[in-house]
Specification:
The complex is a heterodimer. By secondary structure, chain A is α/β, with parallel strands linked by helices. Chain A is built from 13 helices and eight strands. Chain A has helices at about 20-30, 40-50, 60-65, 70-80, 100-110, 120, 130-140, 170-175, 190-200, 215-225, 230-235, 250-260, 265-280; strands at about 1-5, 50-55, 85-90, 115, 145, 180, 200-205, 240. In chain A, strand 6, helix 9 (about 190-200) and strand 7 (about 200-205) form a beta-alpha-beta unit. Chain B is built from three helices and ten strands. In chain B, strand 7 (about 105-110) and strand 8 (about 115) form a beta hairpin. Chain B has one domain (about 1-140): Jelly Rolls (Sandwich), CATH 2.60.120.460. The chains are: A alpha/beta, B alpha+beta. Chains A and B meet through helix 2, helix 10 and helix 12 of A and strand 6 of B.
């Protein structure tokens, strides 16, 4: 079975009832010409990829837009529809004076499982002091962080703020906080690989559909851009499956990884075991 | 002249699937009140098809397997790239091409209030890019 560490529920029908809010979300996240899909149909799609758990990622840049693009409450709403399947992360705009209170509330009252931060969208470096207080809360509550890393395809983003090397200071300063560089930091995958090797608390996920087919892109990244044996021999314990749905359906992303040559023990870790450790799902 | 149109929702259980819709078409004809005319069965999507064949599991398997051989999933299609118009990766080139082969519709005569099919004929909705909520149209013209 597989854990998908990277799903944006932007098109979940259950949180798309307000047409204006839905349209604003699509404009900001750069999703177009697609209709909302109901949960039963999504669950069928997920079953094709053998998903047993799905991490849902919100987005809060409310200081720019007046409201979160996908709110913590909306994440909670979906999680409550199937708490054994969905794992909800929180988001908070660090420019909000009440950011620490909002994040604490997300962990304590909403019982969300981690923090998602997109510094490219916030146009703020990961070591910005306004973010440090949020990392401290994650440290206190032992919650993992998923950082958007690498190029961002969303509207109003600047990718330099999400260059993998910009996260090193945070990884160094908060060694007990598990953090995932999403999208493997593409296209700066060598820099991501370096941090995976150096920092025990740094993970990465495979949500990097930017070019070609999944099979071709994973082959390019893991067999050409990176050393042929790096995944198996250097960071088999640090890479997690992530689809980046709805930019691509999980079954297609997984089919691409299925085609990638790797040791079976590595495959089991990438699809499942590493996410269990990252998310603290151990029995 | 009577003209009737019905949109029928349909959702496959698999990513690629032939779904027999003969009874749905037949029932709409018989409920329409049209004695003589034609019915068009048309899919609303570009990675699905409407096709006609004999309803044998072996034939259905051969149809789908043959389409997979002609349009394999791992061919370097032009469509395999980031589509800024969608914000997604165009990962469904085989679906578009399979749709081209089976076409998007079929047409049958209505005679004495019933659809006139051949003896071994069944009508299929072909899903090549599932699982999605889909629709096909039943369009009757007659009197």
């Amino acid at each position: 079975m597989v854990i998908d560490t990277h799903v944006h529920p932007a098109l979940f029908k259950e949180i798309c009832m307000d047409q204006e809010r839905f349209q604003n979300r699509c404009d900001e996240m750069n999703f177009h010409l697609m209709n909302p899909t109901d949960l039963p149909t999504l669950k069928k799609q997920y079953a094709l990829a053998e998903l047993e758990r799905v991490v849902l990622l919100p987005q809060d840049c409310s200081m720019d837009y007046g409201t979160a693009i996908i709110s913590n409450e909306e994440i909670k709403q979906i999680v409550e529809m199937d708490p054994t399947f969905f794992i909800g992360f929180a988001s908070v705009d660090p420019r909000n004076d009440n950011a620490a209170i909002i994040l604490t509330d997300a962990f304590e009252r909403l019982k969300l499982s981690g923090l998602k931060i997109n510094t490219a969208k916030l146009k703020m470096y990961p070591n910005d002091e306004r973010l440090m207080k949020l990392y401290e809360i994650c440290d206190k509550y032992q919650k993992p962080i998923i950082f958007h890393a690498g190029v961002s395809l969303e509207a109003n983003t600047i990718s330099k703020f999400a260059h993998p090397m910009e996260f090193e200071e945070v990884a160094n300063r908060f060694p007990k906080v598990k953090m995932c560089l999403a999208h493997f930091g593409w296209p700066w995958v060598n820099e991501t690989a370096a941090l995976l090797v150096k920092y025990e608390n740094v993970f990465a996920n495979t949500a990097m559909m930017y070019m070609d087919s999944p099979k071709d892109l994973f082959e390019k990244v893991f067999k050409q851009d990176l050393g042929k044996y790096w995944l198996d021999h250097n960071f088999a314990d640090k890479v997690m499956f992530g689809s980046d749905s709805p930019r691509i359906r999980p079954v297609r992303s997984k089919r691409g990884l299925d085609a990638l040559e790797m040791e079976e023990s590595t495959r089991r870790k990438v699809y499942h075991d590493n996410a269990v450790r990252f998310l603290g799902l151990e029995e | 002249m009577i003209i009737k149109l019905k949109e029928v929702p349909i959702c496959a259980s698999n990513e690629f699937e032939l779904i027999k819709i003969t009874d749905s078409v037949r029932n709409f004809v018989e409920e329409s009140g049209v004695k003589n005319g034609i019915i068009h069965v048309i899919t609303e999507h570009t990675t699905t098809g409407i096709t006609v064949n004999e309803s044998l599991p072996c034939v259905e398997a051969d149809l789908m397997d043959s389409l997979d051989r002609i349009f394999p999933d791992d061919y370097p299609y032009h469509h395999n790239h980031y589509l800024s118009s969608y914000g997604t990766i165009g990962g469904n080139a085989p679906g578009h091409l399979k749709s081209l082969v089976t076409g998007n519709h079929c047409v049958y005569p209505i005679v004495e209030g019933k659809i006139k099919l051949g003896g071994a004929t069944d009508i299929y909705f072909a899903e090549y890019d599932g699982i999605k909520n889909r629709k096909y149209m039943l369009h009757i013209m007659g009197e």
